[in-house]
From TrEMBL:
Record-annotated membrane-spanning stretches: 24-45, 52-73, 93-115, 147-168, 206-228
Name recorded for this polypeptide: Ion transporter
Any Pfam family the entry gives: Ion_trans
Bias kind Basic and acidic residues: ranges: 286-325
Location within or outside the cell: Membrane
Keyword set, alphabetical order: Ion channel, Ion transport, Membrane, Potassium, Potassium channel, Potassium transport, Transmembrane, Transmembrane helix, Transport, Voltage-gated channel
Main location, first listed in the record: membrane
Domain (Ion transport) ranges: 21-228
Record membrane topology: Multi-pass membrane protein
Amino acid sequence: MTLRDRIFQIIFESDTPAAKGFDIALIIMIVVSVIIILLDSVVSLKARYGDAFVIAEWIFTVIFTIEYALRLYCLDRPLRYARSTYGIIDLLSLLPSWLSLIFPGTQALLVIRVLRIMRLFRVLRLMEFVGEGNLLLEALERSRQKILMFLMTVMSLVIVFGALVYLIEPVEAGYTSIPKSIYWAVVTLTTVGYGDISPITPVGQFISAMMMILGYSILAVPTGVFSAEVMRSIHRNHYSDEACPGCGHEGHERDAKYCRRCGTWLNEEADDPRRKELDAEIEELQQQREALDEETRRLEQERDGTPPSHDGSDSQDVHDKRDSPDSPPNDTPSDQR
């Protein structure tokens, strides 16, 4: 095994003690580096430990840079990894430190390193959670048109209500322009309510109340759409659309072998193993039936006094020998006979 292969097993694999130790140490350094970045933003702590924070930050940056270079070195196609999700996250976790040499203040973007903790799923064998996340992304992808239509409707509502309140409310209330009124409409429709702008006329207050009620109502729309797509994704991933050849029932699990209603074999490309067993049992029963029929015929022949042979060839040969002209004459006296 070459040095490159050893590096690959340690960095990318997790089934050896060395690989697991490397992953755990990497995750610990990522967490510590993110904590240092957070503490460095506190003015009092930065005034006392600013130099130590900077030194620790650059130590982690150098270590992560070497680790990123080793990842590219031990791969046959490094550019493909660099364009992958993990590769982009690794690169983004390094760039702020090096860019800070040119653009001071970009160190705050180093919190992107916290995304590298996603490697914890691979270390702890929790990749099924990644699969569940992909299921949610798939559902979001399929519901994008409905959600986009919902957003366009909401934007139309806030523009209309914003313009309406701009016409009703006086300038003293803070509605100095239509964009400022649209901002108020967004805050009101989402039921956030910052309170920096509020209507003072009865009509404006009535519109605000209606918008708040409408905001609670429309929140159920995207939630219902997304939930329906999630359930559809779960059903599509776990259930098959193939119909049962026996009863025509659909909606079986993908790993189901028999219909849950009639018990018919579902895989039409393969033979039913139960059919082979039944055929073997039927053949055995037929053999036993033939043996019983043979025994029955033999017992009937013994009861009637006929020879055991089924075709009567033995008894026929005896009669032929008696009646044959070539047979020697019978000189036995009649009295002896």
